[in-house]
Structures are given as C-alpha cells and as structure tokens.
Amino acid sequence: MLKTLLAAAGAALVAQSAAAETPLIPRAHFFGNPERASARLAPDGSQISFLAPKDGVMNVWVAPASDLAAARPVTDDKSRGVRMYNWAPAGDLIAYFQDVGGNENFHLLLTDPESGETRDVTDIEGVRAILVGASYDRPGEILIGLNDRNPALHDVYKLDLKTGARELVLENPGYAGFLADDDLNVRIGLQQTPAGGFNIYSLDGAEPALLVELPPEDALSSGALAFNDAGDAFYMLDSRGRDKAALTLVDAASGETRKVIAASDMADVSDVLIHPLTNEPLAYAVEKERVKWTALDRKTRRQLDALDKALEGDFQIVSQTKDNATWIVFEDAATAPGRFWLFDAERRKATALFSTRPVLEGAPLQPMRAVTIPARDGLELVSYYTLPPGADADGDGLPEVPQPTLLWVHGGPWARDSYGYNSVHQWMANRGYAVLSANYRGSTGLGKAFINASHGEWAGKMHDDLIDAVDWAIEQGIAKADQIAIGGGSYGGYATLVGVTFTPHRFACGVDIVGPSNLVTLIESFPEYWKPFLDATFHRGIGDPSTEEGRQAAIERSPLFKVDRIKVPLLIGQGANDPRVTVIESEQIVDAMTEKGLPVTYALFPDEGHGFARPENRLAFFGLMEGFLAENCLGGRHEPIGNSLEGSSLTVETGAEAVPGLAEALANFTPKIAH
Q1: 578 catalytic, yes or no?
Q2: What is the pTM of this model?
Q3: Which of 238, 512, 578, 607 does the annotation list as catalytic?
Q4: What does the domain layout of the chain look like in residue ranges?
Q5: CA–CA separation, 447 vs 487, rounded Å?
Q6: How high is the mean pLDDT of the chain?
Q7: In the record, which residues are listed under signal peptide (predicted)?
Q8: Is 490 considered catalytic here?
Q9: What is the pLDDT of residues 257-314, one digit of tens each?
Q10: Quick one: 561 exposed, middle or buried, by C-beta within 10 A (0-12, 13-18, 19+)?
Q11: Of 107, 154, 425, 610, which is the active-site residue?
C-alpha cells in the first residue's frame, strides 16, 4: 500500500514538473488569424484560392495550381474579413457573403480575380441574401434568395453574374427553403407545419403537390439534398422509419423512396461526396466518435484508401474540380493544426498544400481522447477530453492526479462536438487544465431519438447530461471536484448560466459567450427570417411564449429568474449587434447580478455579432478569459494581458478587477471599432 502511494505521489510530481516546463504557447497562435485557410479549386483546376490576411484582415488570395507561392490577394475587405466564399460556376468570379458588424444581413459580393473589381450585387439595406442554387449547366447565373419584400420570407431571384441583373423567379408564399435542379428550376419547397414538422412540396405543376411529410420527430434529422442527373428524383437524408438518418433517392413525381443508398446503425449519414457534374453519390461519412468514410464504388474506395494511408487525422473533401479529377482535402488531427492537401484523384496521390497555423506545427499539443459516457437514463454521450502536458505520465489516458477542469459546451444546441484539433482544448490544456466536451442530448448526427430527447429539457435533462459527464470525469480521476469551470458560446453560454444558477455548487466559475439568460426575450427577439423554422426548433424544444403554457415553460428554464442562486464569479462576453442572442440577454443578467452585488465581469464588443469574428476582439476576450480562470477558480498558468486589447473594440462595463492586469490595461486603451 505504501509503495503504491509513493509511486502515485512520484508520478504526480513528474506530471507537475512536465506541465511547468512545457512552453507557454502564445494566445495569438491559437486565436489570431490563421496563416492560410479555406482552400478551394477553380472548376477547371487551373487555380487554387484560399483565405489569408491582407493588412491583418482575412481576404481571398488566388494562385496558379502549380505555384502556391505566386498567390496574390484578389479581395480587399478592410473590416471583418471574408469568411464564406467560393468560385462561381464558370470559374471567372469569386463569390462571397459579408455582413456589417455581425448583424447577419449578408450581402453577396462578386470579385473578378483578374482585375480585383468587386461588386455588391445585393446592396439593399436591412436585407439578407442567401444562395438557393448554382450549377455547371448554367454557369452564367445563380439563384439567390432575398427577404426584401417580406423580412420573414426569401423570394427567389435569378442573378446574372455578368451584369448583376436580378429577375424574380418565385414570390415566396411561405416556404422555409427550396431545392433547384441543374437547370436552375425551383422544383421543391419546404414548408413548416404547425406541429413542428416539415412538408416537402413539388413545385413542378400549376399548384404545389405534397410529396413528403416529415413528422416533427424527423424534422431536425431529414432534408432534401440535390436532384439526380436525370432530374426525375432527388437525394435525401431521411430518418423516417429509422433512428439514424439514411441517404435515400426519392421520386420527384410521387415522393416514394426509390432506394436506400446508404445507412448505418452507428450514427446518421453526416456527409456525402457527390460527383460535381452528375450529383451521383460517390461516398458517405458517418460520425460517432470519429469520422468513418464508406465508398459506394470501387474507384472511390481506392481513392479513400489512399487518403487514409496518407493522412493521420479525420478528413473531409472540401473542393473538387468540375471533372472530379482533383480534390482539396482538409485533414483534422487532434495534435496538429488543420492541414489542406491537394489530391490527384486519378493517380491517388496526396500533396501537402499548407498548414493553417504553421506556428503550431511541432508545438506541445496534447492528444484528444474520445469516450462514450453513459447518461443517468441510459443515453450515450459521445464526449472528448484533453489533458494538460505531463498529466498522463503512464500513458493510460488518465491523469496521475485529478486536474482543474474546464467543461466546454458546444453551441446550437443542434450541432455537435467532434474529434480533432480544438483551439480551446489545446489552449486550456497548455495552461494546465483538463478540458471536457460532451455531446448532450439534442446534439446532431447521433440519431433522431437523441435529438428528440432534448425537447422540453432545456435546463433539465440536457443539463443533467453535462453533470453526468462531469461526474464521470471526477470518478475517473480526471477532474478535481472543487476546481471545475463551465463555459461555452451561444447554447454553451446558456448552459453556463444554467450551471451557475440551477446547479450553483457544481462549478467554481463560468464563462458565458453570447448566451441567452431569458428564453422568453430570446425567442421574441429572433430575426424575422427565423420564423419559418421556429415551430420545429425553439417552440418544440422550449415552448411558444405567445401561449401561457409555453411562456411559463420558458420562464422556468431561464437563468435570469434564478440569479440569486449564483455563488461563483462569472465572465460574460457579448456582441452588440448579435441578431440571434441580442445584447439584452447579457444586459439583463449583468444588471441583476450587479444589483445583488454578485461578481460579474462584462465584456461588450460594439462591432461584433454572434461571436467574435475580428481577431483583435477574439484575442482581447480570450485574454480576459485566461486571466479570469486562473485568478478566480482554476489557478493555472496564464499569459499576461499585455497588449492583447490592442485594435479591439472592447468595453468592460463592470468587473474589471476580477481579471489580473485588466484595469491597468484599460487605463491606457482606446477601443477601435471596425466599420
């Protein structure tokens, strides 16, 4: 017994020494601009584009496919940076969406990569543009949606890419979405039902014809993908009659399922590789703990096998030439930053393009462990954890002594955590903490029963899942019970507020980024264009606050009304222009905590929306978070704030004293708001 105790103590000392000797990786390496990102192929394969900083702002660069070093910037955004872009079907334009200050009223901009000329082809104030359809068969035009007539509904326009002229194709009578064929005919409409399901209508005739009824239980796990080459059927992800969504082919005239192309008992079909010209499915992916690709033909199987051999991490095919002869593949390995590869699909040869963050290549990044944790009612919680350097001295996947731990909760809630490189996991592990992320019920990709088990369970069983994951980590010796913080963004921010109000003794502090505090005001302030989806999502998940019963359910699950239970310090970050979780959600709980004398630090960014797009703002907030966690509950290492606020728009409304060095940094700081 004594020998065992001495051995454990020795291992703990070795682990602590290893952690102390590990270099402190600068925050900017995790949260500054990547060196390059989002590689895409021109349709003919002659050019490669990617995002990279130009004067500190992310823009599109273009290079000959044979000479990446010859890349030049072709866009000139000077504010938030380009985030969503692609080549137009003819390969002569770059198309990207941009909003103002995070308001999500996206405009569509077209850039000529030769001249650099950029045109805003949807320059209408207060209107949100979306892409409805694009096709190699009609390379000179695309279909876009604009909610200019009715803020809640997107009418469909045909956009001439050369002239920018728009032609109204369909005035939307109430559809939540559309599907067009390769001739850019709008042939499918998706309409929400009052019960929270969706009906899929054929728009081929003079009057809409009901093709497919998606009951409420299938609404969040099913949907139409693309028409087949013949145009007489369309591909679907379909969970009707099964728990895990399958890839199916549905007759466009009758709505009958012609065949089930791919299915798995492990998880939903989560990704489909299709031929760019024929839309024929070539392979599909299923993701439970890790991504697993399965080819649907011999040629694709050999191509995927070659990628499996060449790459160490999970991967995704993110771009293909028009003839499918060349791919760009994104590799996601836990202990390396994201990497892009050029793959000659005919010769099955992968060539490295670039690392997104080469400063992290060779850095002491830590392994991520995938584990399935049982919830108290038997559901399986696919989860991931990362340990600080040196904590696992014997290599068994568990630390020698329990660690200060951050429970980092994903947003959505209809999203999921996955295996791979995770900036927060690696950053926090480097500071000396274990990090745990759990896919609570409501997370996607794990079957419709898992999603539907979340309805009515905000602050209920969804939160129980997080507590069960924490208890598992304590039982396994991973987490130190009195040093566990909770944090996250969006729903993760809400989960943080629930954690410190509904279970106030379980967490030592919390970090809430754009999280709702009052579910009534959350739903009532949603943008108009969310209304076609509300019955299937938030009304079904929480309750409809326009009804007495729904309003009461929302109030009961709102942290704002339990603020007097808070026992621990809280850090809140908010974008002033957030259209999803408006600034009132943070202001309400900050005001309530301040009135009661409870410890809260409030960081507001006037030029941000739902999260922090500008790297200056990310670095400022995460500088606050790092010092906050070290000072208030976890006690790990932290990089001083230093000049982390430089160039940001940060204003600290209250609680600066809770972050070491913040008051001094603010004394010599002038916010810079991007326009």
Answers
A1: yes
A2: 0.96
A3: 578
A4: 2-28+364-518+558-667
A5: 26
A6: 95
A7: 1-20
A8: yes
A9: 999 999 999 999 999 999 999 999 999 999 999 999 999 999 999 999 999 999 999 9
A10: middle
A11: 610
